[in-house]
Prior knowledge:
By secondary structure, the protein is of the alpha/beta class. It has 7 helices and 28 strands. It has 4 domains: 4-19 and 177-322, MoaB/Mog-like domain (Molybdenum Cofactor Biosythetic Enzyme, Chain A, 3-Layer(aba) Sandwich), CATH 3.40.980; 22-42 and 144-175, Alpha-Beta Complex (Molybdopterin biosynthesis moea protein, domain 2); 49-137, Beta Complex (Molybdopterin biosynthesis moeA protein, domain 3); 333-405, MoeA, C-terminal, domain IV (Beta-clip, Beta Barrel). The strands form 8 sheets. It has a 6-stranded mixed sheet. The protein has a 6-stranded mixed sheet with strand order 16-13-17-21-20-18, sandwiched between helices. Strands 22-25-24-26-28 form a 5-stranded mixed barrel. Strand 20 and strand 21 (296-300) form a beta hairpin. The structure holds ligand LQZAQKY5, molybdate ion and magnesium ion. Magnesium ion binds at residues 252, 254, 256, 259. InterPro entries: MoaB/Mog-like_dom_sf, MoaB/Mog_dom, MoeA-like, MoeA_C_domain_IV, MoeA_C_domain_IV_sf, MoeA_linker/N, MoeA_linker/N_sf. Keywords: Magnesium, Metal-binding, Molybdenum, Molybdenum cofactor biosynthesis, Transferase. Catalyzes the insertion of molybdate into adenylated molybdopterin with the concomitant release of AMP. Residues 181-321 form the MoaB/Mog domain.
Amino acid sequence: xxxxxxxxxxxxxxxxxxxxxxxxxxxxxxxxxxxxxxxxxxxxxxxxxxxxxxxxxxxxxxxxxxxxxxxxxxxxxxxxxxxxxxxxxxxxxxxxxxxxxxxxxxxxxxxxxxxxxxxxxxxxxxxxxxxxxxxxxxxxxxxxxxxxxxxxxxxxxxxxxxxxxxxxxxxxxxxxxxxxxxxxxxxxxxxxxxxxxxxxxxxxxxxxxxxxxxxxxxxxxxxxxxxxxxxxxxxxxxxxxxxxxxxxxxxxxxxxxxxxxxxxxxxxxxxxxxxxxxxxxxxxxxxxxxxxxxxxxxxxxxxxxxxxxxxxxxxxxxxxxxxxxxxxxxxxxxxxxxxxxxxxxxxxxxxxxxxxxxxxxxxxxxxxxxxxxxxxxxxxxxxxxxxxxxxxxxxxxxxxxxxxxxxxx
Length: 409
Ligand SMILES: Nc1nc2c(c(=O)[nH]1)N[C@H]1C(S)=C(S)[C@@H](COP(=O)(O)OP(=O)(O)OC[C@H]3O[C@@H](n4cnc5c(N)ncnc54)[C@H](O)[C@@H]3O)O[C@H]1N2
Ligand code: MOO
Ligand SMILES: [Mg+2]
């Protein structure tokens, strides 16, 4: 068996990022990966404008103002936001102005309303600003037209959408979404709506993995349940390999008489790169490459917790790289105080599921209550993190520090 670090590196080396792109609207861009450098022909701010409700003035007019010796200026214009000022300020004059409104020609300073008194068409300036340009947002201060605004390979979330909208990018070039085929294998499996006969079990993996794939911005292609029958499996596996960038099948990767996946992958011409990792849960994870069409096949263990932990630890970085993200592929770990004693045999990198919480300015890991068994998916709900004991560590006492992987979705 290979180590988790070796497996991670084999998997990431195997993955070629998607190159195909498509043009989509800004409205549809949430969760997509930008495929081009975005530049704008507009400066930002677009023009000099006011940061306060108040008066636009010439600094030299008001530089000596105090409550005892105020400056009185004539108000020549009112400039709400969205209006193009019509008048140029001369010495001794002010324009009434509001937050976000364009500065009139001749003005270089804003006096906030609280430091003034209005008398008919005059304003009394009661205090001096520190310097010219006070409360002026200068054109191009945040961004100059033509320079790079956003780089390819970034994930588009609310902040990026704000930037794209302000740059008037109504259409955007993004990488196409990865296609991930999902199939569940096992004679014992039924769908959540089928009545359960003795010995059967509901296929939870199909739904959990589809949700996981969607959360990563990829397209899940649910191919359903396939019985432990070599011919049917072979056909479904072929279909999966031909329709997707990645295949995630669950079950049939251990050593039982009905565990056919590895044998069938060889028959299909796949090159088996991983067939067992020193990790728990998830030991029998099998990773296979198909050279003829770039497809990567993940034979994921059937136990429901093993399936999700394998996805979080090994498939997630691979989908991130595949999707065109330029960085941020790897799982994220931080140190946290363990609220329970964690025990492992020390022979495999061991993952425990539970919740990471910020308590009084430090992170704590709360183990999911009940049995930590790879067949017990019942206590998975609420899981947002995995505590990890490396090979060689057999015990973390309650109150001691443990490494916690927190990008668990
Ligand atoms: N002699 C050995 N037996 C097992 C070993 C071993 O090293 N030697 N490893 C164990 C470990 S660890 C795991 S993990 C499992 C992996 O099993 P498979 O990937 O072959 O999966 P199955 O045998 O098909 O099923 C295992 C388990 O999971 C349930 N299951 C399967 N598919 C689903 C699904 N879609 N939704 C929900 N639950 C599912 C299935 O009913 C079994 O209970 O092997 C151990 N055995
Ligand atoms: O490794 Mo299995 O994945 O522990 O249950
Ligand atoms: Mg099995």
